[in-house]
Amino acid sequence: MRRREGPLGGGYDWEQYLDELAVFGMRPGLERVSALLDALGRPQDRFRVIHVVGTNGKSSTTRYAAAILTAHGLRSGAYLSPHIMGYSERVLIDGAPIAAETFAAAVGRVRGEVVRLPGELGETTQFEVLTVAALLALAGSGVEAVALEAGLGGRLDATNVVMAPVVVLTNIDLEHTQVLGDARAAIFAEKAAVIKGGDAIFGPLAGLEDAAEEACARAGARAWLLGREIAVEGTTDAFAVRLGGAEYAGLAVSSPAMYQVLNAGLAVASTHLLLGRLDEDLVRRALEDAVVPGRLQVVSREPLVLADGAHNPAGMAALANALAALALPGPVVAVSAIMRDKDVDGVLEVLLPLVDAVVCTQASEARSLGAPDLAHRVRSVAAGITARAASAAGVSAPLRVEVRAVPEEALATALELAGRAGTVLVTGSLYLLEDLAGALGVGDGG
């Protein structure tokens, strides 16, 4: 690995240090994070937190909440994952990525404490270092309130070191089943474990409402359930949020995706509970101006190129619903990479009926399914879809499948297949969007 002199000294720069930590993977647990934060003076106690957990919609809800906080005059922060173009994207200060040198300094301080940890705690992971550095950098930047996105799960996630007065649980679906469990109830329990009192907001739970009530009762928290204490109604260009006797109407989001109405609505509810009554005009401007990179993001129009980080069946279903309202020009060609620990076939069952061709590739993330293996799964799922269409006396055109292991080559192939009149849809993983950030122009910079 090439070594570069950087702010961390010792021959390594901060990004290289973080890259090297990736080999330790994901190791749920709070011991290392807690020890690091204690050594650094508990920076997480210096600001109020809206903690966002769930299966889908976490990043969008986090961004919208942070935008509303900023609009109301607070020095606000956000912590997001993963990034698309660079590590600094994960930490926002008043809506902008933190300065690289500021985050580098925070990473350097964390690295200095990592080497002092007792050996029995084991190797510190990349996400743990990122989380501690983010909390340190946010505190050092003087933020007053932070929207904090959880990584994997909740109970043992590195972000679960905060005492958040407001928790948002966006939704629950099967994900990371080898870590979180293979049932929605088990996954819900892991995510709801971050509730420690205060107010807990729940998006659509589809049968887990009683579990939400019980989790809040155990934690001494007030439960706010969508469809009961909270209402979010309307379209992307005109929706309203109602809770606790307050109503915020005439709201809009810049995205054409209907699922962003719900995410924005949860953000409005969370900031209302944190701050009290909000200024409706400020909320309206904050949501209209907020941009969520990699969520049904229009990259170009000739051909139409869309980027969306949907990476599980529920996320892909939300994307499918959004695309159905857009009448995409054909042919529609997908560029896709999917992590092997996801429900690959479940994602493909939703994606393949939307497209005429798929260019299978693989992201640089180690968990990415290899391009040839993905192509095999695509052909298998497509055959099943074709067989069902035939048995229903329907007509199903054959799906074209190409394999390009290098993401840039996959995108180039898709652009050729779509032509100037068609559509290219880059989806399946935010890590793929990260690899193609330069070519697509997505991300916040930093």
Summarize the structure.
This protein has 446 residues and is α/β, with parallel strands linked by helices.
Number of helices: 16
Largest sheet: 8 strands, mixed
Question: In which range does the helix fraction lie?
Answer: 25-40%
Report the CATH C-level class of the largest domain.
Alpha Beta
Compute the separation of the termini in Å: 23 Å
Q: Give me the secondary-structure category.
A: alpha/beta
Query: Globular, elongated, flat, extended or rod-shaped: what is the shape?
Result: globular
Q: Estimate nothing, just give the exact number of structural domains.
A: 2
CATH topology of the largest domain: UDP-N-acetylmuramoyl-L-alanine:D-glutamate ligase
CATH superfamily of the largest domain: Mur-like, catalytic domain
Q: How many E strands?
A: 17
Give unreliable regions as ranges.
Answer: 1-5, 176-181
Strand content: 15-25%
CATH architecture of the largest domain: 3-Layer(aba) Sandwich
Overall pLDDT confidence: 90
CA gyration radius, whole angstroms: 22 Å
In what order do the strands lie side by side in the largest sheet?
4-3-2-5-1-6-7-8
